[in-house]
Specification:
mainly beta; L,D-transpeptidase catalytic domain-like; SH3 type barrels; 2 domains; six-stranded antiparallel beta sheet; 9% helix; 43% strand; globular
Length: 254
């Protein structure tokens, strides 16, 4: 968990390449969204985009509005940058197609309370990208595993939330990455933000967001003693940083 004082010391990570590419032609859209154009496309249908080895995410171009259903019941409005001044990212679960089989709307995971909330944003408002990574946090084993292309590439012990301030379970995604100025501080070299919030600490800064971050108390690794975040050794956090791009699915299970 991040309080106001520490968050004010975070340095923004430059996210290169996030705005490259867009859904500009039929073949490009088909390749990115995995749609079988011309055979199974039905206007207004929602096609699932995720798979065990690939996930999709959308980067807001200028602004985006999320609805409960396409065009109806406003959930939230988002700018190009979030409160930490990094690009706003949604985890993309599916695409609602037009008559020409191009995506009209994306069904997305939102970095909002309640945990796990989803909505729909216009396809034209985001740039669609993909990742082959996945993070699984096992609370019972107090362990974090990173997969790439379905293959395990990193496994480590972690500190998890205490019984009083538990780490929330569910399916989330990496929505931001932030570096710290002082790598010897309580968050180590940085944090990998997750689209989840503490179920207890609702009055904390920014609503009590959850992250995987480093630590200056490595002797607590393997214990249940955090405020809900997942702490790993600083050397491990640096390795995860290079793999856990924005949009990476994060599964936290009990």
């Amino acid at each position: 968990m991040h309080n106001e004082r520490v968050r004010s010391r975070l340095v923004i990570l430059a996210l290169a390449g996030l705005c490259a590419g867009s859904l500009v032609d039929r073949s490009a859209a088909a390749g990115q969204a995995g749609l079988d154009l011309g055979r199974r496309c039905k206007e207004g249908s929602t096609y699932r985009l995720t798979s065990p080895t690939r996930a999709y995410y959308g980067v807001v171009k200028r602004s985006a509005t999320a609805y409960s259903t396409p065009g109806y019941r406003l959930l939230a409005r988002f700018g190009r940058l979030n409160v930490n001044r990094v690009p706003t990212v949604f985890g993309v679960l599916g695409a609602v197609v037009r008559r020409d089989c191009l995506p009209a709307w994306f069904r997305v995971q939102l970095p909002l309370r309640p945990n796990g909330v989803t909505g729909f944003v216009r396809a034209e408002d985001v740039t669609l990208e993909s990742v082959e990574t996945r993070i699984v946090v096992d609370l019972s084993d107090r362990q974090v595993t990173v997969y790439s292309g379905g293959r395990e590439v990193l496994r480590t012990r972690a500190t998890i939330g205490s019984p009083q301030t538990p780490t929330p379970t569910g399916r989330y995604y990496v929505n931001q990455r932030l570096r710290t100025i002082d790598a010897s501080g309580p968050f180590g070299p940085g944090g990998i933000g997750i689209s989840a919030f503490s179920p207890i600490l609702t009055s904390w800064a920014q609503g009590g967001p959850v992250a995987i971050h480093g630590t200056n108390e490595p002797w607590l690794i393997g214990q249940a003693s955090s405020n809900g975040c997942i702490r790993v050794e600083n050397s491990v956090l640096r390795r995860m940083w290079s793999r856990a791009r924005e949009g990476t699915p994060v599964i936290i299970r009990s």
